[in-house]
Design goal:
By secondary structure, this protein is an alpha+beta fold. It has helices at about 5-15, 35-40, 45-50, 55-80, 140-145, 150-155, 155-175, 205-225, 245, 260-270, 280-290, 330-340, and strands at about 25-30, 85-90, 90-95, 95-100, 105-110, 115, 120-125, 130-135, 175-185, 195-200, 295-300, 300-310, 320-330. It has 2 domains: about 5-245, Alpha-Beta Complex (Lambda Exonuclease, Chain A), CATH 3.90.320.10; about 260-340, no CATH class. Helix content is about 40%, strand content about 25%. The strands form 4 sheets. Strands 2-7-8-9-10 form a 5-stranded mixed beta sheet. The chain has a 3-stranded mixed beta sheet with strand order 1-6-5, covered by helices on one side. A 3-stranded antiparallel beta sheet has the order 11-12-13. Helix 10 runs antiparallel to helix 11 (about 280-290). The longest helix is centred in the N-terminal third of the chain and has 25 residues, at about 55-80. It is elongated, with a radius of gyration of 26 Å. Bound molecules: iron/sulfur cluster (SF4). The site of iron/sulfur cluster has 13 residues, from helix 2 and helix 9. Iron/sulfur cluster binds near residues 38, 230 and 240.
């Protein structure tokens, strides 16, 4: 009997190649709708790119299948919309994946965004050109999305990305109208046909916020320092491929990181020392002096919180004294404790 295990092994290696390659040279249109400049920054930094959580072979297989499926849906949609739309330019499924027409390429030089529209067509009666984006998704997600804006307002960052992607194409091509075609991968629970056509219009106000996020990421790339994290959410940060690089967590919840190598070295040394040693005392007061006025910060593995406090002096001295109280928590040690609880 012939052993075919080599075929699945080969597929696995193709889908999950060792070595992570290089980060993209531009922001990807499919990612700019994510609500975090820090994420956009990490997509362009080789060290962060190398450390990101990989999709894995099974998830990559699923995504490739979705992409192949989208080309078939597009051909079906062209047929369905043909009486009202003309001048179609669309991606087709070729022997080596989707074959993009150069007219579908999107490149915004000023914002440094790249992408590829699934299709362009013209509405016969209004003469308007429409940008079309096809997505396949689980029936659970498909049932939740009933307007294009549901992508924008979703808690999952990758769904926010879909809205930003189509908005980027509209903005870049100077178009007003877009169309999402959504297919559920499984049968809809209410028995509906698993295909939806959702119109979308260029949303200037929304896209201005996207531009601001991109500009912040561009500035951070020039400065070599990531923007601050956003408030932590399970469906957003919890599923972010850069979570381990970023260090955001429910306990630090978007607290800005402080980059102070000397202070971090001292905090690590303080951690190694015994609390009753004289070096500990000296370092502890030096660190706390430097952290006076810092309300919240993450420095390496340490989560620092501080606040201004007052204390009443003895009745004979009858006065109030103000002081700064700093608390230093080792998040790595806390995480270890949590795991072994
Ligand atoms: S974990 Fe959250 S804050 Fe950090 S990069 Fe990802 S989305 Fe942004």
């Amino acid at each position: 009997m012939i052993d075919y295990s080599f075929a699945t092994e080969r597929l696995k290696n193709r889908l999950d190649p060792k070595g992570q390659g290089n980060p993209p040279a531009s922001f990807q249109a499919s990612q700019i709708g994510r609500p975090c400049s820090r994420y956009l920054y990490f997509t362009r930094v080789p060290e962060a790119w190398a450390l990101r959580k990989p999709f894995g072979a099974a998830a990559q297989y699923e995504m490739n299948r979705g992409s192949e499926r989208e080309s078939l849906i597009l051909e079906k949609a062209v047929d369905l919309l043909a009486p009202d739309f003309q001048d179609w330019i669309f991606q087709r499924l070729g022997p080596y994946g989707r074959m993009g027409d150069p007219r579908l390429q999107c490149y915004d030089q000023a914002l440094d965004i790249r992408g590829r529209i699934d299709a362009l067509c013209t509405h016969k009666s209004t003469g308007k050109t429409v940008a079309v984006e096809v997505k396949t998704m689980s029936v659970h997600t498909w049932e939740r999305i009933n307007r294009a804006e549901d992508f924008r307002d979703a808690a999952d960052h990758y769904l926010n990305g879909y809205y930003g992607q189509l908005q980027a194409y509209l903005y870049n091509f100077g178009l007003e109208d877009g169309l999402f075609i959504l297919e559920a991968k499984e049968r809809a629970s209410n028995g509906d046909l698993p295909l939806k056509f959702l119109p979308v219009v260029l949303d200037f106000e929304y896209f201005q916020a996207v531009i601001d996020r991109i500009k912040l990421a561009q500035f951070a790339l020039r400065a070599g320092k990531p923007p601050d994290p956003i408030a932590y959410t399970e469906k957003g940060c919890g599923r972010c491929p850069y979570l381990t690089v970023c260090g955001n967590s429910p306990s630090t919840n978007g607290t800005a990181a402080m980059y102070d190598a000397d202070l971090l070295e001292k905090l690590n040394r303080r951690e190694e020392l015994k609390a009753d040693s004289s070096e500990y005392e000296k370092l502890d007061s030096e660190i706390k002096e430097r952290l006076k006025g810092v309300g919240k910060a993450v420095i390496g593995n340490f989560y620092v919180t501080g606040e201004k406090r007052t204390r009443q002096m003895k009745a004979t001295e009858a006065r109030t004294q103000e002081f700064w109280q700093t608390k230093i928590e080792n998040m790595a040690a806390k995480e270890n404790e949590r795991q072994f609880d």
